[in-house]
Amino acid sequence: MSSRWAVLLRGVNVGGVTVRSADLRSALAEAGFIDVRTVLASGNALVTVGGDGDGTGADAPPADELDGADVRARVEAALLVRFGREVRVVVLSQVALTAVVDACPYAADSETHHAYVVLLGDPDAAGTAFETVAAVVPTPGASAAGEVDEAVAAGVGVLYWWCPRGSSLSTPVSKAVERLSRTSLTTTRNLRTLARLTHG
């Protein structure tokens, strides 16, 4: 049996930290993952963990017994070897990621907004993270008074964020998410990017 996983690197290709897609594919393949595919240049990959003979070691558990923590540890170890520095990742099974995308309460895009998903390394922390971020959300419609009109919603291990176009680095929610990332493993993706990772 085999299992398909989405691997989302945190904080790469921004702030001078560069991980090229070709290097990422190579590092994951050398670590024993198969059918490695990268999506866009923002640190996204799909990998398969196969059964016997997949190169991940004779003592590795069967693919259908692995969980996200196992895959994350294996990926982070491979990236440390390849790039010589710690690169944190969030890992979800492709099935779980599909459920996250399908459950988003916001449209992927509109004329005024984009939908983003904040993925949490510790899914059990979603409730606390939501309370922290939601506390800064302006009253709906506040943009008429010169404030930003945005929204957040809690999901399973994620936060959904409805953000005005062109404002993803400057809104109250973006700043709250950035503060959250200082103490928790998080990474944020556009909903359309995640949708591309639900197949292939």
From TrEMBL:
Q: Which InterPro entries match?
A: DUF1697 (IPR012545)
Against SUPFAM superfamilies, the record matches this protein to: SP0830-like
This chain belongs to the protein called DUF1697 domain-containing protein
